[in-house]
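Run: sequence + magnesium ion -> complex structure.
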Amino acid sequence: MDIHEYQAKEILARFGVPVPRGGLAYSPEQAAYRSREIGGDKWVVKAQVHAGGRGKAGGVKVCFSDREIEEVANEMFGKRIVTHQTGPEGKIVYRLYVEGGVDIQREIYLGFVLDRKSERIMVVASASGGMEIEEIAERAPETIVRSVVEPAVGIQEFQAREIAFALGFEPGQIRQAVETITGCYRAFDELDATMVEINPLVVTGDGAVLALDAKMTFDDNALYRRQEISELRDKSQEDPRETMAADRGLSYVGLEGNIGCIVNGAGLAMATMDMIKSSGGDPANFLDIGGGATPDRVAKAFRLVQSDHNVEAILVNIFAGINRCDWVAEGVVKALEANPVDIPVIVRLAGTNVNEGRKILEESGLPIITATTLAEAAEKAVSAWHEDNASHLKAVAS
Ligand code: ADP
Ligand code: MG
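>> structure
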């Protein structure tokens, strides 16, 4: 789960990370009022959306008066911010963060990620901040500092000092840099984060160290024990289709095409997407029913895919190990009986109780197209979608 910049800053500040003064606003008037609370003569108005790259997309604006803040805020509220991290549909701005404007002398990149190879939290940092880490890796890979943290002892002061020196902090800034590095690590570790990123971490004109941007992502599987984090969820920033699925314990990924896919397991999902593509079609989404799915769960999954307006054909592709084909078939039949569709439905079942499953489909009398292999299923789905589309067009023309 992602959270907003202002929320990440609030959390990190509690762990001793220095951040500028700021306040949240839900209206232009409130934004202007925030600047008076903060004081000073320069402010930055920042769109709160779950994506980086806001600066380049018009989501970060420097202002010099409260009138200017009100104007900028007026522009930003309700605006769709499109960055390389949002996808073409972008994310809408409902909250603004107003922050004291900082005199930047140096920009540093500081990140904490899970390194799956060493099974440890790893610090990834670079003295060339202000760019995304992907860009740093491309343009200045030699500046990247990596340091793996030993979980039994956590990050040690000497380790944080080593990183701080490698990033070129001056002696007077080392203490603040060390506090920032250890604070981020503790927040990551104690709150079940999967990513903490400060980009940029800056040195100001008067030599102070400050986190100007902050991003945190949390482990969804640990949210049940992190009440205070799960309350930070902002559904307005999520794909509504994915939110609906997550609320029902299903995992759903929305895509741009028109063939809806119900599968079990991420690997089979990938294979199914590939097969649809190579048959000349385009997946609208995929929904993973997971293992041991009951007929009810399958029916729910089916209804969810049905409710996606982009879906013009549905492909159910199940390779049952822990799952049972008869339960899947029952779920599909149940969903179709309760809510008949006029789009093609293709079902391919394999594995546990496959014969029972096929029998249920046959005996239902529903116009379900069946297939035995994945390739056959994908081909049938794509050609059924084409035919169905052609007959719709004919109907419209006549
Ligand atoms: P994003 O990464 O989404 O583009 P940032 O919060 O990193 O958003 O802001 C983009 C840039 O705007 C920063 O790299 C920094 O140069 C500048 N900036 C952000 N916050 C402030 C601030 N409080 N004072 C001065 N400049 C800022
Ligand atoms: Mg940034």
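>> summary
The pocket of magnesium ion (ligand 2) is lined by residues 52, 199, 213 (CB under 6 Å). The first strand starts at residue 22 and ends at 25.
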